[in-house]
Amino acid sequence: MTEPGESDLLVLVSTGRRSGRRHSTELAYLADGDRLLVFASNAGSPRDPDWYRNVRADPRVAVKVVVKAGGEAGGEAGGETFDGVAFPVEGDERDELFARQAARHPAYAEYQRMTDRVIPVVEIHRGFLDGRAWALGDELVKIHDGLRADLAALRADVRGFRRGAAPGLADQLREHCVSVCDVLGQHHDNEEGRAFPRLEREFPGLAPVLGRLRREHVAVTENRRRLEKLLDDPASRDLGHVGAELDRMTAELDAHFAYEEEQLRALLNAVGPRWRPVSGPGRR
Predict the structure, then answer these.
(1) What's the rounded Cα separation, in Å, for the pair 178 and 229?
(2) Dist. CA 243–CA 223, nearest whole Å
(3) 120: helix, strand or coil
(4) What is the CATH number of the domain that holds 233?
(5) 242/229 Cα distance (integer angstroms)
(6) pTM of the model
(7) pLDDT (tens digit, 9 = 90+) per residue, 89-133?
């Protein structure tokens, strides 16, 4: 569906999430610095438009800025064609940007009144792709899967110790716990020190997502320290308590990993060779 007239327009080419075919959609845009912003209004429909669902599954897009009748190029980017990535803006920034667009084109305010869904605002960034296959999001999932396997093995150790499976298992349990917690801590340190700052610079709309992930990192660190403290004194360990703490930490980490993968995997798969993988420490 074409957006209202008298706007700066672009053609967004996305990849169908089911068909894999390329789809072109003409959209009004708002230029904001180096990024272009589009709005998933769907004319006030209760359903997100297909192009938005496509870019949520695969944010790699092609864009052509439309030249208006009479040869006048739309906006500051007039006539430009580029490849890039498209990602939703969230939180207060989304609200401010949508309000700006609604002030320019009141139809958008009416579209929002017509639907209960919050109309997404999507930022488009230029120049992240060079045609090569880079899958940094998939690498992130592999790191998470390794940590999931480590935690599963640690929980099995706790169950084995409670059954008195082998002499000296207490020391092995402590060593295994420290090893797993160190790997987890290094992974989060890499994200905090390298990946998250760069994501913030290049994708300002990710601020609410990264804020939540950082808060969850703090909670994970507290859980790790609590678990290690429980295992510090072999003579006084309450392994029922250890098992409960480990189960709770694992459940929270599973939720944390799932949220991070949902929010970042497709984007990280699209950002291209300027990025090195969001890597954790070497696997054992």
Answers:
(1) 10
(2) 13
(3) coil
(4) 1.20.120.520
(5) 10
(6) 0.61
(7) 888 999 999 999 999 999 999 999 999 999 999 999 886 544 444
CA-CA distance, 147 to 245, in Å (whole number)?
A: 17
Query: Is residue 131 assigned to a domain?
Result: no
For the chain, the average pLDDT equals: 80
CATH number of the domain encompassing residue 106: 2.30.110.10
Cα separation of 64 and 182, whole Å? 47
- Amino acid 30: pLDDT: 94
Alpha-carbon distance values, 109 to 101, 114, 131 (Å) = 9, 9, 38
DSSP-assigned beta bridge partners for residue 9: 28
Alpha-carbon distance values, 38 to 24, 66, 74, 239, 267 (Å): 14, 14, 14, 54, 17
Mean pLDDT of 142-152: 89
> Do residues 123 and 36 touch, judged by C-beta distance below 8 A?
yes
Dist. CA 86–CA 123, nearest whole Å: 6
Q: How far is CA 189 from CA 59, 144, 278, in A?
A: 26, 14, 11
Q: Is 67 in contact with 73 (CB distance < 8 Å)?
A: yes
Max intra-chain CA distance, the chain: 85
Q: Is 277 within a domain?
A: no
Number of domains in the chain: 2
Token pair belonging to 142: 């592999």
Q: For the segment 35-54, what is each residue's pLDDT rounded down to a tens digit?
A: 899 999 999 999 999 999 88
Query: Nearest Cα to 112, choosing from 52, 42, 49, 50?
Result: 42
With contact defined as beta carbons under 8 Å apart, do 97 and 122 qualify?
no
What is the pLDDT, as a whole number, of residue 136? 78
